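Quick question, first post here. What does this chain look like in 3D?
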Amino acid sequence: MCRQSYKTRHARTAGRLVVRLGCILMVVLGLAVDQLSAQTAVDPDDPLEGYLSAHGLEDLIVTHLEMQLRQTLLEEERVQLAGRLALMYGRLLDASKTDDQRSVWEEKSAELLDLVPGANTEALQINILKATYLRAERLAEKYRLRAVGDEQRLQARRMMTEVSSSLASTYRDIMMRVLRLEQRDFTEAPRAEYEQASSELRTLDALASQAAYYAAWAHYYRAELSDPHGDVNEALRLFGHTLQSDYSQPRLEELPESLLAFEHVARAALGVALCYALRGETNTALDWLDQLDTPETAAGVLEQLDAYRLWVLFLHRGYDEINLWMDETSAGDQVSVPAARLITVCALEQVARSSNDEATALAARGITELTQQGQLSQVIDLAEQYDLEALRNDDFIITYVLGLQAHERARAAHGSESPTQDPQILALYAEAERRLQAVLDHRDGSAQYRESVAQARLLLAGVAYFQGHYREAADAYAVLSMGAARDEAESAHWMWIVALDHLRTDAAAAGDMEQAGDWEAELDQSMRLFLDAYPSSSRAGRIRYRLAANDTGPATRERVDLLLAVPPDSPDYKAARHEAERMLYSLFRAATAADRSERALEYLNLARPILTNEHRLVFATALNDADTKRYLDRARRVLDVQLTRGVARLSDARALLDRLRTAEAAGLIDLTALDAEFQYRQIQIQILSGDWESGAEWAERLWTEDKDNRYARLAIRELFALAVQDWRAYPADPRLVGTLLRAYSYGQRLLDAEPLPLDLSDQDVIALAAVVAEASLELTDRQQDETGEYLKQASTLYAQLLTQRPRNVNFLKGSARVAEHEGDNEKALQHWRTCLSGLDPSTTAWYEAKYHVIRLLADADPTYAREVMRQHQLLYPGFGPEPWGSLIAEISERLSHAGDPQPDSDDSSGAESETGEGDGG
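> Answer (accepted):
Ran it through. Tokens below.
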């Protein structure tokens, strides 16, 4: 385009640079500002911001910008960063899904101007004020539903006053800049200057529209929130700017219906309707709302139209229309919860101002809608704000809510879970009882509102309980436990138990033991029924406690926990802890090796304080026989735990034995029957402390005195276990032969004490015999068997063990070694082959057995051994893992140089496959 044609075209616009049509309206609605936000909030030259933006990490971009703002000193850069931050806050505020998220961005926006005093650009100001407006709008809408109180209404009003004033000032400043730009003559100006001005004007148009839009809504809410300075006409004028009206107040015929899909356009039209409603022009307001009621309207506005239409109708008492709307809505679907609450609130407000039958009926209808949708908490909330008695309505729901309200009032005044004798609180419970009984007596209760009636019965039973009417409460709860819904039935069953416990306690306190016994039996039955019905209930633990001490079954962790949960002020506290101590000991004895230390510590933490207290009683008073027995039994259990391997509390055990002996010396207790046991405990202390010789001497004396005594045998078993432990732990010790002799000697002594024939179905006997056999064989291998005693014993024991466990690998290995010592290589080969066939070829043990098979074959039949070796080498070229691979390789080398001719393939028909079966395994 040439310069002349450009100038001529510009002159025809009469000074206006842009005609604000549909595309400009989109700018008005903030779309262009959103585009500007997208362009300027993220710096395209910053790789970090680009990466975060591409991955949707806007909150991290904000953190990045905030850090830059704190570090930047240049005012111009700070203003630019503040502008970008304001845009980001606005975008994140719009995207927030929870009140907590919105609060974060609102607070940050409000603080931004204080952080950057020079950042006075209109875009930044509008974004910050928008955050304040949105927070105030939420409060205002909550107040419309009376979800917040008058304090929040005044807060919202103050915020709207601040926003409307600031936005109006910003709007005026922007419009002055627009006017100056429009009045400039660009006839002789360069094209670039004209285009720059056009771009600036489009941006200013967008900002002015945003400022006008939020200022209009702020003015409207000021008026709605009863601000005497609220100006509905000013709100209409500003909404007109958004809707591009040519008049001071928007007219319906000007409404750009094609743009209602844009939410800001639709909301501006909604704002116009609400302003007309506040001015009393109900029909005009409804006409605007009807115009918005089209599928083309933005969904967010469309779904709110019914609620706002109801509010407009209530402003001017359009009760017939509201009832008609509710009839039509109920016919197709439920009335929404917000709409039902709005109807109820508005109707109750009307009733509170002046008695009105139509408003009263609507209030009752709204309450019914809320109740039927399970919104009882909302109904009770409204009952606290409004006097439902003023409805003069005997509707079931009203009766029910008044009963709930009376119950809540009594419980709030009581504030305890225990029954009361306070006359004032009892009077409140009596009123609640009257109200709740009216619910049960209502003509519509059982027919239409069975769940509500059941709830009233549950509350009524509670009222009886809190008044101390235990029998009445127990009977009511017993019925409810069988007929209510599961959650209510569980609560009722629990309260049945509590009431029965009160009855039992009161009967016992009155000395009526027969009646107390009857209540105890019923209580026991009720508790067992509860456990059957609700085994996982949080209350089940407290009930099991009552049953735990009398349970004759084995100790369990659950029973222990129940007993330990008894509080110190309970009369059962001492007995419960004593029972828990016995159970923890049983759990310790049954524990695996991995859990034993933990179980021991838990047991000792409980038992030692009990025992310490009993020590004091022993020396302070003369205990009777029963108390003495309980004391000594507990001391024996504590010693047993303290001297268990892996636990070993030696100093504590010594101190306990010293106390017992001191008490005996003082004539306070008699330990004669426990002498052997306490000698054994002394032996344990000596062995565990490293004084093996003294322990052995004590054990020998105890054995000599009575080898059939249980503790004499336990002492020898301790010495045997110590010898085996040293043998396993230090196989290369030069003193190993002495250790083996000790293991053999003590093990043989224990075997000799077993009745013959040995009971090899007993795992302990099998383990003992296996260790003695192995020790015998080790002594034979180490040429310590001059008389042949050890070899003979090893042969006898392994033969017996194989009879019981013929496929046991260790027993087969031992038997093979015995056979070789006896010169029966064929039998040894047979044992190794059996061993080989039962092992996994991928294990080291398999290669060990394979080595011995080939070794024995090499001595008995070199030719066959070569064939077996050939097959093994084909399958396992590396011969196998160390050390067996090298040993097999040595045999291979020896066989290859033995000079024995290789047989023809026809002569090796007896060879079997070396894949793990047959002679080769």
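The chain is about 75% helix and 0% strand.
The longest helix spans residues 150-183.
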